[in-house]
Amino acid sequence: MYLSISSYRIIFKPPLMYNPNMLILGIETSCDETAVAIVEDGIHEIASVLASSADFSIETGGIVPEVAARKQLEFIIPVISKTLEQSHLENSQIDAIAVTVGPGLIGSLIVGVESAKALSFACNKPLIAVNHLIGHIYGNFVDSKKAVEFPALVLVVSGGHTDLVLMKGHGNFEYIGGTLDDAAGETFDKTARLLGISPYYGGAALSKVASECKESNPILKLPRPIMHSNNFDFSFSGLKTAVRTVALAKKFSFELIAKEFEEAIVEVLVFKTIKAAKKYDAKSILLGGGVSANRRLREVIEQESEKNGFNLHVPPLKLCADSAVYIASAGFFNQNKLELKDIQPNPSLGIADEIK
């Protein structure tokens, strides 16, 4: 059953506080995944369950928002139940609930937000609204072997976003720069399709092709868009156009083009990240987002961080993709006191936008 309590007037809301061994149940439904997790004290994963409709997306050649939302309606209650079962906890033992409110697909966000509201209301638990992009950052805090030192320069790089943020502390973020057009992940996927590597989820497939390419040719040199600009913004649409031009000329193999394309994006991302970290006197550099799983990006940013004296934090591969684990963690460290009626999905929420 789909429950909506947006129109209810909630008079009582339990106060939020940092209790020892605080358990937060996180809910993530911003795209085509249905994920629920329980995290203790923001840093210890207790349980995590994910149901995906990716197979349906492959059949249709991409994500169909309505199909994704309908599958999430089907999955959400069983996934919550399975997570509680996996953790050996009862509803009453959960201290608070955290839910992604944006950005994302509006239908998918509604499923997660309204389900979280219903659970919060039924169990009389506080509900914490979480920005999905901020959530990506907290993949670096869960079960980490080393503490993050602030200020930290954060690169969040995903299918829809490429952002540089200065993290001065929990709940204290300053936007530094971001993509002016296509995000890095989107450019990876479109280029993979253009080169005939993969029609869907192409970024990972392109990276695999690039890593296996042994040939080289100094003549092939793709542009590094606005790498030396006097700001920290990114622009990758021109790079995609350059790839198309080179591919149509048929002078180079698609494997070599893929390799040079990946080098171009990684070089721009790492150069601007290190430059920003120096300017803002960062002590740490953090990666987050789906593209942070890219092998070449992790390799180069590790080399450059070590060379320039920055402590680098990269999330485990399982926390690069959409996950309720880092939503629960972000909820712990960024608690807000919004009434249930004020917590609404926002598909266009930016990384620096305040949740109101």
TrEMBL record:
Cofactor: Fe(2+)
Cofactor note: Binds 1 Fe(2+) ion per subunit.
SUPFAM superfamilies named in the record: Actin-like ATPase domain (SSF53067)
Keywords: Acyltransferase, Cytoplasm, Iron, Metal-binding, Transferase, tRNA processing
CDD domains: ASKHA_NBD_TsaD_bac
GO biological process terms held by the UniProt record: tRNA threonylcarbamoyladenosine modification
A cellular-component GO term for this protein: cytoplasm
GO MF annotations, alphabetized: iron ion binding; tRNA N(6)-L-threonylcarbamoyladenine synthase activity
Record EC number: 2.3.1.234
Principal location: cytoplasm
Function: Required for the formation of a threonylcarbamoyl group on adenosine at position 37 (t(6)A37) in tRNAs that read codons beginning with adenine. Is involved in the transfer of the threonylcarbamoyl moiety of threonylcarbamoyl-AMP (TC-AMP) to the N6 group of A37, together with TsaE and TsaB. TsaD likely plays a direct catalytic role in this reaction.
Record protein name field: tRNA N6-adenosine threonylcarbamoyltransferase
